[in-house]
Amino acid sequence: MVNLVIMRHGEAVAQSSQDSQRQLNARGDAEVSQMAMWLTKVYAHFDYILASPYVRTQQTAGLMLAQQGPATQLQTLPELVPDGDSHQVQLYVDALLEQNPGARILLVSHMPLVSFLVETFTRSGNTPIFDTAALACIEYAPGGQGVLLEKIAPADLQLIST
After folding, report:
1. How many whole angstroms separate alpha carbon 82 and alpha carbon 150?
2. d(CA 143, CA 47)
3. C-beta atoms surrounding 70 within 10 Å
């Protein structure tokens, strides 16, 4: 059962006065919307969406939230920034899952942290590269070694649909 999904934000504009203020571009909006629709067809709704405070991840999380049920809670987690600590994120997720067993969680973050999160939650030694709006779907229990069940990107969905 997939209960943890790690997602990289959608494609963002190339420049802004501050990296944290970069917004999704039109392609980023489209690819996130595509992934949101796929995710709701394949997996049950999330209980929590945890996102970095950066603008592009907040926008990505908002698009994902729009496809979820009314009970889904969106939270900003400062540790989900590009240079965040994956172990601190794991501690937060573990506490959330201990309080709410069976909860389903979507983490929206950045490279390189998304790669480190996959390794932290699976202890596989695998730090995959994420395309923008790509997802890693994991079966995870608090404090345990999760299993990466699939990793999918917008380009993969185009191959599947053709």
Report:
1. 22
2. 19
3. 5
